[in-house]
Every structure is written in C-alpha cells, then in structure tokens.
Amino acid sequence: MKFGETFTEYLHGEEGWFLEKCRHVEYKKLKKVLKKCKTCNSTRSNDEHTNSSATSLSDSCQCQSCPSCDEMFFEELMKEASDIAGCFKSRVRHLLHLHVATGMQRYMMRLRRCFTDEKQALIHEGHILIQYITMNAIAIRKILKKYDKVHSSVNGKNFKLKMRAERIELLHSPWLLELGAFYLNSGLDKVGNFKNSFGRVSCNNLNEDQPVMKLMLPNSIELEFDLTCAICLETVFNPYALKCGHIFCKACACSAASVMISQGVKAAPQRSKCPICREVGVYAEAVYMIELHLLLKMRNKEYWKERVMGERSEMVKQSKMFWNEQTMQMIGY
C-alpha cells in the first residue's frame, strides 16, 4: 500500500474524532501541486526538442525552482507544520498536567478512578498523539523528497533545515521526549502489547556516562535523546528545555544566564544566550521537563537525592551572598 493511501486511511480511521480538532498535512493537495509541476517540466522538455522553448519557458517550471509552485507549496507546508507542532504541544501539556496533577485536581482524578480507568485513558491519548506526530512527520518527509525529485533540487532539504531553525520540526520536539518519559514512568516499557502497537521506548541506566532515551516509533523511525547536561556533563537534574531545544539542569541553565537558582530559568535577561548554540532569547519560553525529572527520581533515587542536596546547598550559598551584598550596599560599603 502506498503512503498516500495509508495516510488517508489513518485520517479516516478510529481516531478521526481526534483529527477533526487538529491540523494535519494536506498530503493529497500538495501532491497535486507537484504533479502539476511535473507536467510543466514534461511540456518544457518536449518544447525544447522541437526548438520552441523560447515561448514555453516563461510559463513552465524552472529547474531548481518554481515560483508558482513554491508560493503554494512551502508557505502551506510551513503553516501546517507550525499548527501541528502547536497542537501537539498543547495536547501533550494537557495530558501531562493530568498525570502529575496536585491538590484538588488530584483528589478529583482519584475519585473518578472509582468509576473509570483514568490511567488507561491517558495512555490511549498518548498513543494517539504519538501516531499523530509520526504520521504527519512522515508525510512532510515524503512530500519534500518528492519535491526535490520533481524539481531536481535540494530546496526540500533546505526547507527541513528551516523547519529546525523555526523549532517546528516535529520529531525534535522536547514534548516528544516528555511523552516518552511519561510512558516509562507508567511502566509501559515492560508491556508486550504496548511494544507492538506503539513501537518501543527504552532508557539505559541513568547513572551511566552517556544516559540515552530511545524511541522506536511506527514505520521504523528510531530516535535517540541524550540526557547529559552539556554544562556539568552529568545526567540532567531538574531539566529545562530552552526554546532552541537544548536541555540543561536548572542550576546549570541559571548559572549560564547569571541568575539565582531560586529566581528560576525564566528570570534570565532577554539577551541571555543558549550555552550551546548561542541563540539569544531562548530562556523566556523554557519548558520544565517534569516527566523526565520524575523518571530520574524513580530510576536513580540515590543520584536524585545527591543532586537535591547539592542544589539546596548551592541555593543557600547564593542566598547568603545576595543578602550580604544588599547589606553592604545599604550601609554604604
């Protein structure tokens, strides 16, 4: 079965109710645009053979680029990818908020479990989200590959780089990493039926030199997420993902931005740069990776306790230095 048929079957499958509320790649529409371009190229070739290319080239697709096609193709694809990334982010955030609910909301959820299997419902929604992001990512990859084939260009590959720069490349979202941690925290990495329907999610010993989380998604897509902080070179603790996608310990990210741990990552100045890619303004939209933090707490309790004590000690030290400086300023030293 061709991917176009598979994608159409997915859109009209059991999860149709979910897809009605979310944007998806208009695969057939974009494919028709490329098919029209292919026809233009064929026409141009025939005209060149009959020595009448002078009148036809102005109306046909040019090699490497096609202005009429590009305007419809890349603009539409960029908007779709942005909407899909936004939908995935909001849905995963809502799911994880329910999973780690506190206070009255936690009490109400426990009460609901007397009547419904709330945990199973969350797991099912997570499965739907994994399929959603995977199928749309494959659709984008295939349509860009077809674009390059039709136009004999590398514009499709360049567009992938642009998507990554705009932080809308679907399979590089920190929310996908959070969803993988959610499944590990739910113990589903040990369930056989889960492996067959979803793929596979695994995480090696978090105390190793190179802790890694692996996601084997449908259609044999394998992803690896490095869980090492690039600053302290240890497993991330109280992890935050900056807007650029790089993940750091809270204490390390605060130190790099010259703010106190108690102030938090989002208190960093607007001019603060990512310690790795040096991009400016990435702290304001930092994401706290709560499921990844819980995974560390559950899988490596001794390391977690050690880091908690170290972070508290550093916070006390920073607080003392801050108030000493305030006192010196007040008395005129």
The count of strands amounts to 6
The biggest beta sheet, please? 3 strands, antiparallel
The assigned structural class equals mainly alpha
- State the separation between the terminal residues, measured CA to CA: 78 Å
- Low-pLDDT segments: 47-63, 191-197
3D structure, described in words:
With 333 residues, the chain is mostly helical. The chain has a domain at 1-36 and 65-172. 58% of the residues lie in helices and 7% in strands. It contains 13 helices and six strands. It has a three-stranded antiparallel β-sheet with strand order 1-2-3. It starts with a helix and ends with a helix. The model is unreliable at 47-63 and 191-197 (pLDDT under 50). One of its GO terms (molecular function) is ubiquitin protein ligase activity. Keywords: Metal-binding, Transferase, Ubl conjugation pathway, Zinc, Zinc-finger. Its EC number is 2.3.2.27. Pfam families: zf-RING_UBOX.
What is this structure, in a nutshell?
Helix content is 58%, strand content 7%. With 333 residues, it is mainly alpha-helical. The strands form two sheets. Strands 1-2-3 form a three-stranded antiparallel β-sheet.
